[in-house]
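Q: I'm a student working through a structural biology exercise. My instructor gave each of us a protein and asked us to get a predicted structure, then write a short paragraph describing it. Mine is monodehydroascorbate reductase (NADH). I'm not confident about reading structure output yet, so if you can add a plain explanation after the tokens, that would really help. Here is the sequence I was given:
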Amino acid sequence: MPSYKIIFLGGGNAAGYAARAFVENGLNAGELAIVTEEPYCAYERPALSKGYLLGAARLPGFHTCVGGGGERQAPEWYSGKGIAYLTNSRVIKADLAKKALTLESGEVLSYEHLIIGTGARPIRLTESAVPGANLGGIHYLRDVKDADALVAAIAVAKETGGKAIVVGGGYIGMEVAAGLASNGLTVTLIFPGSHLLSRLFTPELAAVYERLYDAKGVKMVKGAKVVGFGGADGKVSSVDYKDATGAVHHLEASLVVVGVGAQANVELFKGQLEMAAGGIKVDGQMATSVPGVFAVGDVAAFPLASVATGQVSLARQEHVTHCRLSAAQAAKAILGLSPPPYDYLPYFYSRVFALSWVFYGEAPAKAAKVHFGDMTEAKCFGCLWLGTGGKVVGAFLEGGSADDAVVLKGAVAKGLLLSAEAVTGSGAAVVAQLKAKL
Ligand SMILES: Cc1cc2nc3c(=O)[nH]c(=O)nc-3n(C[C@H](O)[C@H](O)[C@H](O)COP(=O)(O)OP(=O)(O)OC[C@H]3O[C@@H](n4cnc5c(N)ncnc54)[C@H](O)[C@@H]3O)c2cc1C
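A: Happy to help. First, here is the predicted structure for monodehydroascorbate reductase (NADH). I'll explain a few features afterward.
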């Protein structure tokens, strides 16, 4: 039975950053194996809904850790460091008591330390039994295989003048709709909220992006729920949706992309590990309830302190910065470096068309929302969420520089106190104002 000191299960975004942290902190050749069902070494997954759809990002160009400003770790990087990278190797059983993983091939691997980084998978409309949801031509986007299928479908739709429908107005739906429109397709974006990205955007922020989508010819159907798909020869040709009044509408579609959220891949560990928040419960070292077993990235439910209240709760974060940092945290813990407890400030970013935004912290409904900057021309603008006593608990900026993002991060991390009336002027002026207070 092949045996390793450390196995990283899941060769996703976190795996690449864990490998880097192990190497930087004294890993010996032959100690680490990464086991993944995908045919590729770790890559920067966010590129799939951005550059990949435009033909700009292709492997090996976006292997980790290029997104985090590090070296591009192509397969030779791993072999050169004595790390075994087992691609096309799906784990079908994890026996944590025996410290053994069984691969689909029947091979069994054993370990001393295990890091679980199995990530998440898209929620499929077949799971909620939406009629016709299993038809061909209905796409989801999680990995390179999905992205390749979508790119091929875009090419066909371009040739045939086909109509594309995107289901979901979150960041995946928004980015994919922008990618399809940039490819020249006729796009309709259907979502249940009253405005785009309603989990984060204020109506005022959403209005800026909605104007842009409108200008790019993307039709938005708000307050709507997809209730069925029609098709011929096993392929989707229409979408039925219900509007807020309950009326059902029918739209032609040759290509559908669904982005309605994700769920963590935890099934292998149910009954073996303590679970929380839909993921695997870990402590500040990313250690699970079983000694020697760690969980990182999308799958980990870790202690997260609220910026607004200071209250600590177990939370999952499906974001690449958390996956990178938590991977490094587990690597250091396994190497006996006893890192300080994981201290994470939520951070999100997205890019649509020529726009690009960042957000740090939280966006509590009760906070005062103070918008600033040029929201008409959609140049540099943003919003601050001010909690009790005017404490900055959330900060959003569109069109800023990397240095500006550092200022926003600092404003939230430090909990700057501001009065709403004092936040005025251009985006640059408000960033300068925050910088002066740090
Ligand atoms: C299209 C898209 C766009 C995104 N854009 C952004 C963005 O703009 N900003 C941002 O912050 N975040 C973004 N994210 C989220 C970010 O990519 C994830 O948070 C990150 O990939 C999580 O890393 P991970 O290693 O935990 O999981 P993943 O990267 O999902 O990796 C999990 C790996 O485990 C493998 N695996 C699972 N089960 C098994 C098994 N049983 N056996 C073997 N292998 C297995 C999977 O195949 C996969 O390779 C985006 C995600 C997607 C899908």
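A: Here are two points you could use in your paragraph. The CA atoms of residues 76 and 83 lie 10 Å apart. The longest strand covers residues 108-116. It's a good idea to check both against the output above yourself.
Q: Great, thank you!
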